[in-house]
Amino acid sequence: MTRHIHLGPSILAADFLHLGDQIEAAQAAGADFIHVDVMDGRFVPNISFGLPLLEATRRATTLPIDVHLMMVEPGLWVQRFAEAGADIITIHVEADPHLHGTLRLIEESGAAPGITLNPATPIVMLEEVLPMVRQVLVMCVNPGFGGQTFIPAALDRIARVRDMIERRNPSCRLEVDGGIKASNVGRAVSAGADTIVAGSAIFSPDRPIPEAMADMRAAIRAALAPAGR
Ligand code: DX5
Ligand code: ZN
Description:
Structural class: alpha/beta
Number of helices: 7
Order of helices and strands: EHEHEHEHEEHEHEH
CATH superfamily: Aldolase class I
CATH class: Alpha Beta
Bound molecules: D-xylitol-5-phosphate, zinc ion
Oligomer: single chain
CATH topology: TIM Barrel
Largest sheet: 8 strands, parallel
């Protein structure tokens, strides 16, 4: 049996004037979830969007919504994000000295907790909280902007996080985010990713969403196919 790889578009790259239509198109094309990037202008050098846009996204789709909080002091906000419609809330280990408490708060708010780390953060930072989370996100770019180039060193990090997941919390998902395209998604999957975020590879003015989704799926299938077939 081939494992199902979850694929979700990041709406950061969507055309905001047609956001509802674009989310609908992604869902119709087989997206498994919608990824929402929240940036506060402090943890990352950019500001994206917040609660009202999450509420609108909630109304636009029946898919799970995966909220990636790129913000300092996420603990002050996770309840509000859960109420606004987040199914999964992922926080950065660098942004919160009280990870354990905040992850518990996410769970109590009714969302699933996720944890992530920047490309230069040692993976050992995950160790203690890994049993508490539904998902680990391995960032493949420095967070803050869509459309950046995949950092190749992320592949080895994906493999090491996969090992740690197998040891400490085998049902935990391993998500990758940043610079993922049809040309490199196969390598991320082979290294151990099972949940894929893609922004600019799916929402682009040059390509219809279903075509871009189909390309990603084909690349994922090729990576999963037994060698020689
Ligand atoms: C980057 C965000 C990503 C971004 C990915 O800080 O966390 O989710 O939207 O965009 P692409 O796929 O274009 O790199
Ligand atoms: Zn993200």
